[in-house]
Amino acid sequence: MVGDVAVTPLRFTGEFLTALAAADDQRAIADVLAGELHGRLRLDGVLVHEHLAGRNHTWAQRGVMKPPVAPRITAVRSGEHFAGGFGYAAPASPRWVVVCSRVEPATEDELAFLATACDTALVAAAQAGRVTEERTAARTGRALVELGQALSLEHGEERVLHLLTLAVARLVPQDGVSAWRSDGDGFTLASAHGFTARRRPPLGTRVPAGALPPDLTASRRLRVLRREDAPALVRGPLAGIVPIGEREGNHALLVVEREAAPDAAEEALLLGVADQALLALANERLLSAQREALSGIVACLGRALALRHRATAEHSDRLTSDCTEVGRVLGVRGEELRDLAFAAALHDLGKIGVPERVLGNRGPLDAEGWRMIHAHPALGAEIIEPVGALAGAAALIRACHEHWDGTGYPLGLAGEAIPLGARIILACDAYHAMCEERSYQAAMPPEAARGRLRELAGVDFDPRVVQALLTHLAHADRAAVPA
Questions:
Q1: Cβ distance 462 to 470 under 8 Å?
Q2: What pairing do the DSSP bridges indicate for beta strands 186-193 and 97-101?
Q3: Partners of 89 in the beta sheet?
Q4: Quick one: which of 203, 217, 358, 451 is 20 to 30 A from 387 by CA?
Q5: Rounded to the nearest 5 degrees, what angle is found at the Cα of 118, between the Cα atoms of 113 and 120?
Q6: CA pair distance 180, 344, nearest whole angstrom
Q7: What gap in Å lies between CA 392 and CA 388, rounded to an integer?
Q8: How far apart (Å, rounded) are the C-alpha atoms in residues 401 and 235?
Q9: Which sign, positive or negative, has the C-alpha torsion 34, 35, 41, 43?
């Protein structure tokens, strides 16, 4: 009752509740609240504000809010009155501050309506925030699983870091993402994505460790640096930096350029991405060490073969190069290409068990000599089979004297039943044998040897392998001609 006039208390409408229920995120809810307050309280302007993750964030605004706004936000947050308006500060998360601008002061009923409307909207906003967090967590989880699967298929640190920058550029808003590989006393740019041409740093750029904050890799956390903090690393005004591995275990730095610091959800995502990358890089270094050890084993066996029969060892070196190139032409990749290279290098390893009188024989071999020659592929495979990582190479060595028409040895395999790597070794080995002086034949001119390959395509050799070998040899001929 105001004087003799009865005043109906303010109540928000069903449309307000329906609109809140339909809004699916905090920004939409704040806009519904601002619209309700602006109309029902006849405001000049209304602002829904929150100090979020170290930044001032405006969720919604209706009407005109004349500056300065910051002092009014501070007054509402501290419960103080201010001229030209009133407001409401949420006591719990989300900690919205609602600033209302109006010349007339608010009545008690209007303040009560403001508080009730804000509390109702805040309940909806809190629920929407939880739903958003759950969706973000699910999306982050899926993204990390997909990234982990993709990283597991990559080989080489450069490829892992390249995929990492592409993934981060897709997952978080950014103005550029770069990955800097640790090289002991500094960092070298290995990959960059999303930069403008003016800001893009050239690959291979190196930053000494002394030019960076000393604790940058001290712990698993995101650091926000300004350009003046690390001008060699940060190209824009601000960047979030995540170490991939800590202290002595650091492998790289992930640098995400953007205008504002990442929020809590983005920080969690970037740390998860860094963990995935750390696992991939650690595995890659372990695999690299294993590959080096395996190459050492092959080199030792090659030296043993050289001591036993130097001409055979020199032939294997040349053969390995040709087999690898022909394999690439035919689509052999990854571990299969590695197996092919190892098998080519060791394809004659079994000749260690063949007496020199047989290998150096200048006349026709007797039955016993042929038995030893036919046994050498299986013997070579048996020598390296105890090394599990050479199992693929062993299978190729065992089959590298099988012929396309099934007349080869030791198993009499034919056609596609012969492993592709073994078919490649057979054709390349035969070409080199024809072109080299042997105890049992004179060297053949290269063109004659290539003609012989064509004649025996479909008989001894896989026609597709012969074509790939001839193409490779033609390219090698052109490359050898002086410009």
A1: no
A2: unpaired
A3: 97
A4: 358
A5: 95
A6: 37
A7: 9
A8: 59
A9: positive
First to last CA, the chain: 104
The H-assigned helical ranges of 153-180 are: 157-171
Whether the pLDDT of residue 300 is over 90: the answer is no
Split at pLDDT 50, 70, 90, the class of 431 is very high
| Residue among 64, 81, 244 nearest 168 (CA) | 244
- List, as own/partner pairs, every contact residues 283-287 make where C-beta atoms lie below 8 angstroms and the sequence separation is at least 24, other chains included: 283/152, 284/154, 284/155, 284/156, 284/157, 284/160, 285/157, 285/251, 287/155
- Residue 18 pairs in a beta bridge with none
Round to whole Å and give the CA distance between 119 and 101: 19
CA pair distance 478, 390, nearest whole angstrom: 35
- Return the DSSP state at 457: B
What is the pLDDT at residue 137? 61
Placement of tokens 């390219």 in the chain: 475
**167 CB-contact burial (10 Å; exposed 0-12 / middle 13-18 / buried 19+):** buried
SS3 12: coil
Q: What is the pLDDT of residues 94-110, one digit of tens each?
A: 899 999 999 999 999 99
**Helices assigned H by DSSP within 153-219:** 157-171
Closest C-alpha to 325, from 133, 469, 161: 469
- Note whether 178 and 201 are within 8 A (CB): yes
The C-alpha angle with vertex 263 and arms to 261 and 269, in degrees rounded to 5, equals: 110
Tell me which of 23-32, 34-43, 152-161, 266-275 is least confident: 152-161
AA letter at 407: T
Q: What is the mean pLDDT of the chain?
A: 83
pLDDT at position 111 over 90? yes
470 CB burial (10 A radius; 0-12, 13-18, 19+): middle
Backbone angles phi, psi at 378, to 5 degrees: -65, -40
438 pairs with which residues across the strands?
Answer: 441
* Beta bridge partner(s), residue 58: 49
Q: Which residue in this structure is represented by tokens 């308006």?
A: 85
Residue 13 has a pLDDT of 72
Question: Model's pTM, two decimal places?
Answer: 0.48
Sequence letter at residue 52: L
Question: How far is Cα 300 from Cα 240, in angstroms, rounded to an integer?
Answer: 48
Query: 323 is written with which tokens?
Result: 């087999």
What is the layout of strands, in order, in the sheet containing 176-182? 206-208, 186-193, 176-182, 252-257, 238-244, 223-226
